Each structure stands twice: as structure tokens, then as C-alpha cells.
Amino acid sequence: MNHTRATAAAWGLPVTAAFVPVLDTILDVPVRTAAQLPAWQVIATLAGSAAVAVAAGYLGRAEHDQPPSAGARPPRPRLKEGGRTVRVSRVTNPWPAVLAAATGAGVGVLVVLRPIGSAGASAGPPAAPPSCCAAGSA
Hints:
Blueprint: H1 3-27, H2 39-59, H3 94-113
């Protein structure tokens, strides 16, 4: 398994799995505020996420380095007289910046919608279930 797939498994599966119990709980109640997530589902999601992360870390590791042969000398750079080597490196990853921008945009939308009463508040009492689903109907 290559490093990219291991990383996807380590992040993608646990994050996706965390939403399954929540959706299952929310979809079983007529009003979303009445939903209660059982503790065993939280524990099972965290344990499953940890197991997937450990498996991805194990499967995504690189193979061991080969020991050098007995008479091998390390390579030497060809430098001019008085020259020296300097290691210069830079690593960039655009995904944390993209994630931060998306999160910031979402928070910005909530900040704008909150004062006008559109974020997280219902316009009135919860709607009654359809007549086909009302209690006592057959």
C-alpha cells in the first residue's frame, strides 16, 4: 500500500465513519433536537477510527534501508576548493490552507446568518409528522 492510500485511509475512513452513527440517530427521530446519540456508538466510532489509523500507519510505512556493503564508501560531492555543502529545503502542502479557508468561510457564513436568525433557529414549533406516519394510524 502506498503512502497516499494509507493517508487517505487514516483520515478518510474515520472521518466518514464518525458521521454514520450521527446520521442514524438523527434520521430516527421526527425532530432533530430530540436525537440522542448512545454512548456505545461514540465508543465504537472512536475505537474503529483508532484501529483504522493504526492499520493505515502500519501498512503505509516504508521498507527498511539496506545496509551498505562492507567495502562501500559514502559518496562525496565534487566541490571547488574551499566550497562546502548546504542543505536547503522547503516543504509545502496546500491542503491545510484549503481546509482552513473552507472552515473560515463556514464560520463567516454562520456569523453573518446568526444575527438575522437564520442559523440554528427554527421559525416556529416543529412541524407535525405526515398523516401516514402519525402515531396510532394504520
